[in-house]
Design a protein that fits this description.
The strands form 3 sheets. A 6-stranded mixed β-sheet has the order 4-5-13-10-11-12, sandwiched between helices. A 4-stranded parallel β-sheet has the order 8-7-6-9, with helices on both faces. By secondary structure, it is an alpha/beta fold. It has a domain of 203 residues: Rossmann fold (3-Layer(aba) Sandwich), CATH 3.40.50. 39% of the residues lie in helices and 16% in strands. The protein binds zinc ion. The site of zinc ion has 8 residues, from loops.
């Protein structure tokens, strides 16, 4: 861990890490803090990477963790997959998929949860909690189970069954809150204060975004000599795209990435407060609307300033996509690349398609899409996008009629 300081993203105030989770001047909603490392102290990192294990802890100088737990050595360094047939479908020159569905609990969120669990252990906590639309919770339950911490999870009652099964099998205490994600989030914050649990929620816990940053650090290292023109992510609370953008910037500053990709933020059409805030400069906190892509079904995002600034700094763009487009993209991604994306991850693929149609992406563009979650997490959502199987009697003639297209 290099020396770090905490800076308020709203007013620039520098806060004492021992005293504050959020800026005391701007309050818990707007006063989100950002971790800033002294990159001069991390200058030797590029020469050390070749000898390090392929997981998120290889970037130790850029992470807020003193001693990475051995039990969490399986997080990160997910593969990049060339997807030429998907590129042809989208009408761009090249598509690479960063398949974060291959993380231990099947999602990108393992990166943040691993850092959260490591920091909780470092500070002597026995219990850790979060509110989540699903993947942050499942990843926290999994990382806590691996490291021997107790986990308490607050989810909205609409959580997909696959994610609920993960929470329960990892032994977490689960509260299904009869309300929205915003209700679950508030309840979790109150519980952490009352019971002195470590709060894993990314927006109020600035260190969690550093875990998400590792996806950007990896992309930079995996594409160092051949960086994509664009990096595409679907966006809910805003922490993930902010983290990836930050990781890319740090690697660029350290000389490990030739040039900075532009960020494309993708939101669901009916739940797009960040895309709107990028235009207006303020967040509408009265947000409503819904999408079947549960991981980005966040009408009131907690980290809007970091997300909007991360995309703007990269000279990036925002697009929105409808649920029908997400369903089609999930099918296209699976059949044309072999990667099974959960609905929110497929939204990023749909966003690339929409950006190409809008002219934001051109035919010559080289695009990297982050697949943030595995499709097996939400089977009902996946099946809603797919054709029916052929139902036949156990009779080869019936199979032949379908194979040959012959009428019965
Ligand atoms: Zn402030």
């Amino acid at each position: 861990m290099s020396p770090l300081r905490l800076i308020c993203v709203a007013c620039g105030n520098i806060c004492d890490p021992r005293e504050h989770d959020t800026c005391p001047h701007c309050g818990p909603d707007e006063g989100i803090l950002d971790v800033e490392f002294d990159l001069r102290q991390a200058g030797g990192l590029p020469g050390k990477l070749a000898a390090r294990p392929h997981n998120i802890w290889r970037y130790a100088e850029l992470l807020p963790v003193d001693t990475p737990p051995q039990s969490l050595a399986d997080i990160g360094w997910t593969p990049l997959i060339e997807a030429p047939r998907l590129a042809a479908e989208l009408g761009v020159a090249r598509v690479r998929l960063k398949d974060d569905g291959r993380n231990a609990s099947g999602s990108f969120k393992d990166r943040a949860s691993a850092v959260g669990v490591a920091r909780a252990l470092q500070q002597g906590f026995r219990e850790i909690a979060c509110a989540s639309t699903g993947n942050a919770a499942t990843s926290l339950a999994r990382c806590a189970a691996s490291a021997g911490l107790s986990a308490t999870i607050f989810v909205a009652s609409s959580v997909p069954q696959g994610k609920l099964a993960q929470l329960l099998v990892y032994g977490a205490r689960v509260f299904c809150v009869e309300g929205t994600y915003a209700d679950a989030y508030r309840l979790c914050t109150e519980a952490c204060q009352r019971f002195r649990w470590y709060n894993r929620n990314c927006a109020v816990n600035p260190y969690l975004v550093e875990g998400k940053k590792t996806a950007g650090l990896e992309i930079a290292e995996q594409c160092a000599s051949d960086p994509p023109g664009w990096v595409v992510l679907s966006v809910g609370d805003g922490c993930s795209i902010a983290g990836v953008a930050k990781g890319l910037r740090e690697m660029h500053t350290l000389g490990l990435l030739e040039r900075l990709p532009r960020m494309l933020g993708v939101q669901a059409r009916d739940v797009a407060p960040l895309a709107a805030a990028a235009d207006s400069g303020t967040l509408d906190r009265g947000g409503r609307g819904s999408t079947y892509a549960d991981s980005i079904n966040v009408p009131i995002p907690r980290n809007w300033r970091k997300a909007v600034a991360g995309v703007r700094h990269s000279r990036g763009a925002w697009v929105t996509v409808g649920d029908d487009q997400i369903r089609q993209a999930a099918f296209d991604c699976g059949r044309l690349s072999g990667v099974f994306a959960e609905p929110a991850a497929a939204a990023a693929v749909a966003g690339a398609a929409a950006a190409r149609r809008d002219g934001v992406l051109g035919a010559d563009d080289d695009v990297l899409i982050v697949i943030t979650g595995n499709g097996l997490k939400d089977i009902a959502g996946a099946l809603s996008a797919l054709p029916e199987p052929h139902r036949v009697p156990p009779d080869i003639a019936a199979v032949e009629r379908i194979v040959t297209g012959a009428n019965p």
